[in-house]
Design brief:
By secondary structure, the chain is mainly α. It has one domain. It contains 14 helices and 5 strands. The strands form 2 sheets. A 3-stranded antiparallel sheet has the order 3-4-5. It has a two-stranded antiparallel ribbon with strand order 1-2. The longest helix has about 35 residues. The radius of gyration is 21 Å and the shape is globular.
Length: about 325
């Protein structure tokens, strides 16, 4: 894997969830030298920023994003126990038996929640129409988001990729929040890039199959039909607003097998989810978040950065309670 700075040189934008920081390449004609937006910025340039901004929003306004933050924080706390007086990490051997067990559980939890990040090169190179989902396997995981919660659903798509003059390449992987987040942001930036004309840009069709097209292909495989971009993005958001995003996405997609209007199906799914969503957000805002940042206080003064994280979670989760699709509402308004 490339170092972060070298990796950034190969892409136009990047978002670091552990720092809540968006980086935009200077190859994107978006900002003036004083840091302000260029009034003449093109729609494709704005789309690069919007893609990364959606990652930021989903980091702070979804249940999956909140648990990802908690998992990263626990990993960071465990890492501090490996650092010696010389400032160097001694690796996991420096951890106690209980801490190593916690680390193993945490790594498994992160993998099930986010799904696999590393897949075969053939899938990564595959374009939107050059791979097929043959089957989707599901089973309850031995891992749960937290002790009192139902287990995650392990969702494993089986994928076939044609190979010129050879047998098709078959592969599978754990599907999770990573593909949902990237799939939603990719389709949203396509809408922004096309501008009011609505013309699809050729570059958007050439994006890697993984992670950008997997969620859409999985949705269409399970639903048996395609839906408008905004409906698809909202379906991914509904899944991310639960503690089991992969399992919920499968159920949501299957609900679209009905011949009913997609907007009506989506509205019914959102209405059925609203009570649980508000209860979960209230639990986070009133109990979990307060306890988490009290933990920072016990270790000393809370930094400005930690305060910003807390304020972001409170603002975006509170907004999500009454506006479950606020980012797509903005997208539709700007594109109309």
């Amino acid at each position: 894997m490339l170092p972060v700075d070298e990796l950034f040189n190969t892409v136009l934008g990047a978002y670091a969830p552990n720092r809540a920081f968006i980086r935009i390449s200077n190859r994107v004609d978006l900002f003036r030298e004083d840091g302000h937006f260029r009034p003449e910025a093109t729609y494709p340039s704005l789309a690069v920023f919007f893609h990364e901004y959606l990652h930021y929003v989903h980091n702070f306004s979804t249940i999956a994003g909140y648990f990802n933050f908690l998992n990263w924080l626990q990993m960071a706390f465990l890492f501090t126990h490996t650092v010696g007086e010389d400032g160097r990490s001694r690796g996991s051997n420096a951890l106690s038996y209980e801490q190593r067990h916690q680390l193993i559980n945490l790594v498994g939890l992160i993998r099930i929640l986010n799904g696999d990040v590393h897949v075969t090169q053939a899938l990564r190179d595959a374009k939107k129409d050059s791979f097929t989902i043959k089957e989707v396997r599901e089973r309850p995981s031995a891992t749960a988001p937290k002790p009192d919660a139902p287990p995650f659903t392990e969702v494993t798509p089986l994928i076939e990729i044609p190979q010129p003059g050879a047998k098709p390449h078959e592969t599978s992987f754990y599907f999770g929040a990573h593909c949902l987040i990237e799939g939603a942001a990719f389709e949203a930036d396509g809408l922004v890039a096309s501008g009011p004309s609505g013309n699809v840009l050729p570059d958007s069709l050439d994006a890697p199959g993984f992670p950008y097209h997997v969620a859409r292909k999985l949705f269409e495989h399970l639903a048996g039909r395609t839906v408008a971009t905004v409906v698809f993005i909202r379906a991914t958001i509904l899944a991310l607003l639960t503690q089991d995003p992969a399992g919920q996405f499968v159920q949501i997609a299957r609900a679209f097998r009905s011949n009913a209007d997609p907007e009506l199906i989506l509205a019914e799914l959102a209405a059925g989810n609203v009570k649980q969503l508000r209860e979960t957000i209230d639990q986070i805002l009133n109990n979990d978040l307060a306890a988490l940042f009290q933990g920072f206080l016990k270790r000393g003064k809370i930094s400005i950065g930690a305060r910003i994280f807390e304020e972001n979670f409170r603002y975006y989760l509170t907004r999500r309670k009454t506006e479950p699709f606020f980012e797509t509402d903005c997208l539709v308004a700007c594109n109309s």
